[in-house]
Amino acid sequence: MSIRALIVDPAAPAALRLGDIDDPAPRPHQTVIDVRHISLNRGEIAFARQQAPGTVLGYDASGIVSRAAADGSGPAVGTRVAAFGAGAWAQRMAVGTDSVAEIPDEVDLADAAALPMAGVTALRTLRAAPILGKRVLIWERSEHRLGLRRAGCVRAVLALLNRPVQVDEHLRRRHRVR
Questions:
Q1: 128, HSE (Cβ side, Cα atoms, 13 Å)
Q2: Measuring CA to CA, which of 60, 65, 121, 171 is 20 to 30 A from 11?
Q3: Measured in Å, how far apart are the chain's first and last C-alpha atoms?
Q4: CATH of the structural domain 2-174, one choice from 3.40.50.720, 1.10.150.170, 3.90.180.10, 3.40.50.1100
Q5: In the chain, where are the structural domains located?
Q6: How many CB atoms lie within 10 A of CB 54?
Q7: Per its UniProt record, what Pfam families does this chain match (predicted)?
């Protein structure tokens, strides 16, 4: 079965064209996501000409899990997620479950597509570091600031953690965190 994707084509304008590719074949630790929204990062467009023909670009996506990971490590079919992984500019992508975050119902999937690069990086850091009950600072890089604020990153990251995290009172009021 084939799916549509934006693929690298050196002969096309901006070195990109819409084309058909094979449906992703996930590894046991990967989930398949029906991509609903992506975010465009300047670097992905800028470096398109340096990629091999046929490469599917994109790293940030949000969508719905259509196939759970065979090893049982990820979210169930039908779960709303944001994902960080190669090949996001396609109708479906396979991505490691360690790069997928469930999206709460109150966060719009279009907004959630802005979370992966910055949000999953923050989430991985929060999961890896012994910070439970400690104050943390998530520093926003300038190119992500608008997307993170629009998507309510602070609320979304706290909702994704699903555990208590201390947040400065000013940040609580500013981002309406309860």
A1: 7
A2: 60
A3: 46
A4: 3.90.180.10
A5: 2-174
A6: 11
A7: ADH_N
Q: Which single residue is written with the structure tokens 């890089």?
A: 141
Count of CB atoms within 10 A of residue 94's CB?
21
Is the pLDDT at 47 greater than 80? The verdict is: yes
Structure tokens given for 64 = 């719905």
Classify residue 96 as exposed, middle or buried by CB count within 10 Å of its CB (0-12, 13-18, 19+). Answer: middle
